[in-house]
Amino acid sequence: MEKVRWGIIGCGDVTEVKSGPALQKAEGSELVAVMRRNGALAEDYAKRHGVAKWYDDAAALVNDPDVNAVYVATPPGFHHAYTLLAAKAGKPVYVEKPMARNHAECQEMISACEEAGVPLFVAYYRRGLPKFVEIKRLIDSGVIGEVRFVQSTYLQPMRDYEEGLEPWRIQPELSGGGLFVDLASHALDILDYLLGPIGEVKGFASNQTGKQKVEDIVTTSYAFESGVMGTGVWSFNAFTRLDLNEIVGSLGKLSFSTFSGDLRIETADGEVQELTIPNPPHVQQPLIQKIVDDLRGIGQSPSTGVTAARTNRVMDELLRDFYRA
Fold first, then answer.
1. Which of 8, 131, 230, 324 lies 20 to 30 Å from 70, alpha-carbon distance?
2. Are 115 and 196 contacting, i.e. CB atoms less than 8 angstroms apart?
3. Using CA atoms, how far apart are residues 145 and 166, in angstroms rounded to an integer?
4. What is the DSSP pairing of strand 229-235 with strand 217-224?
5. What is the DSSP letter of 304?
6. In this structure, are residues 186 and 283 in contact, taking their beta carbons and an 8 Å threshold?
C-alpha cells in the first residue's frame, strides 16, 4: 500500500485531538472521509478538519473507493459489526479500545479479518508512547533485574448521573461493563506489552454503592505466562484519586501511572531517578505511524487484534460472575 487513505466511522470526541489529526499528520497517511449517523455532525467535523468527504451511512464510507483503510471510533458496542463490514469489503481495520464488549466478539472480529486477508489493529496507543517504550527498554535492559511482580492501584471518586443520562461508558450494552472496562483496559494492555500475556486470572467485581448498574470496584490477582505475578484494584467509588503501577524486580522497582507521564526508577544500590516523559499533542500518532508503516510494508504495529483480545479475555474473567448474577 503506497498511501493509507483513512475513513473514520464515528467521528466523536476521541477523534477531535487524540486520533483524527494524527491520521492526517502521520507520514504516508491521509484522512479522506468521515461518517457519523448524524449527518450534520459528520459534515461539521469534515469542514473543521479539512476532510473531503462525509457520510451518515457506514456502508457508504466503507465502500468508497478512495478509502483503503477504516478506523472504527464508535463505542465498543458497534466495533464488532463495523469491523466485519470493513473486513467484508477487504479493507484493513483500526478499531478503538476496548476492542469489543467481550472476548467472543473479539475472536469473531479476528476470524473475519483473517478470512478476508486484512490486518486488524486496536487503539491501545500506549504501546507507541515514548514513556512506555522507555519502560519496556528499561525492563528488557535488566535495570531492575528479573521481574517478580506487578501491583496496580487505580482510585477515583464516584460520579453521580441523572437516571437516563448516563454516559455510554457505564452502559454495559454499549461498553461491555463500567469504567473498569474503559479505563483498566489501558493498564492491563500495557502490562501485556511490558511483561507478556497474562495466564490464569482470579478476582472479584462488585457494585458497592448501588448507584449505577455496573461494577464500581474490581480486584484481581493473576499470573503472567512468564511466571511474573500480579495484583490489582480498580475502585471508582473511592475518596480520592490515585493511579499507580509498580513493577518490582530482583534489583529494583519501576513506578508509573497509566494516564500521566510520571516514571520513577529505584534500584537496590539506593539510586532513585524520577522522570516525566510528556505525551505528544496527538497521543495516538506514534501508534498510528506504526500502523501506517505496517500497512505500507515498512514496519510492524505492536497492537493488533490478537494482542488486544487478550485484554478482553482477562476482563471477561473478572466480570463474568458479576454480570451472570
1. 131
2. no
3. 45
4. antiparallel
5. B
6. no
β-strands 69-72, 93-95 pairing? parallel
What integer is the mean pLDDT of 142-148? 98
Residue found by looking up cell 476532510 in the block: 51
- pLDDT digit string (tens) for 239-250? 999 999 999 999
pTM over cut 0.90? yes
Residue 325 has pLDDT above 70, yes or no: no
The mean pLDDT of the chain is 97
Residue whose entry in the numeric block shows the C-alpha cell 476492542: 99
Place of cell 467509588: 237
Taking the C-alpha atoms of residue 298 and residue 95, their distance in angstroms, rounded to an integer, is 21
The pLDDT of residue 29 is 98
What is the per-residue pLDDT across 67-90, written as a single tens digit (0 to 9) for each? Answer: 999 999 999 999 999 999 999 999
- Please count the CA atoms within 13 angstroms of the CA of 324 that sit on its side-chain side: 7
Distinct helix (H) and strand (E) counts, the chain: 12, 14
Taking 70 as the threshold, does the pLDDT of residue 102 lie above it?
Answer: yes
Give CA–CA dist 46/40, Å, rounded.
Answer: 10
Cell of 43: 459534515
CB atoms under 10 Å from CB of 241, counted, come to: 9
The candidate with the shortest Cα–Cα distance to 154, out of 262, 221, 279, 245, is 245
Name the packing angle between helices 185-195 and 305-324 (round to 10°): 130
